[in-house]
Amino acid sequence: MIIQKLLECVKAEQKEIWQSNEQENHGLTWTQTRKMPITNKAVLETLRMASIISFAFREAVADVEYKGYLIPKGWKVMPLFRNIHHNPEFFPDPQKFDPSRFENAPKPNTFMPFGSGVHACPGNELAKLEILIMTHHLVTKFRWEVVGSGSGIQYGPFPVPLGGLEARFW
After folding, report:
1. If exposure means fewest CB atoms within 10 Å of the residue's CB, which of 18, 109, 120, 160 is most exposed?
2. What does the H/E/C string look like for 17-52?
3. pTM summary value
4. Quick one: how many helices (H) and strands (E) in the chain?
């Protein structure tokens, strides 16, 4: 039910943009993509719940002690982004889909759907823009509904909806 309410809010936000564009006879603009607060928070929460990058390999550049363990300089480490994104210390009730988490910026190094630092995906802003554009067109130009429960995530090389995600378009 909460997801349905969120979808209605996203649709309303996008419909307002679409109607403005229809009146002015132009397509979606860069400026408009920066003014989609509800949709943007939903996208960020989706990226938190189903991280595109599961892990990365890094090398310790200095000796580091973490929770009583020594990680010597030069050792390879593998941060698991999914574990960070699902840590209740950073994201309370982490299995709950809650876009309001992004009303304020997360603490540094707690939200890294595209990696972090100099090794972050160089296309991360483009990817988020593409998701916003696709969402705009999906909710303004099509009528559709998810068929079945549509709940759960299957983790493999990439996260996908558990059991697929059947939808009916009309």
Report:
1. 109
2. HHHHHHHHCCCCCHHHHCCCHHHHHHHHHHHHHCCC
3. 0.87
4. 5, 8
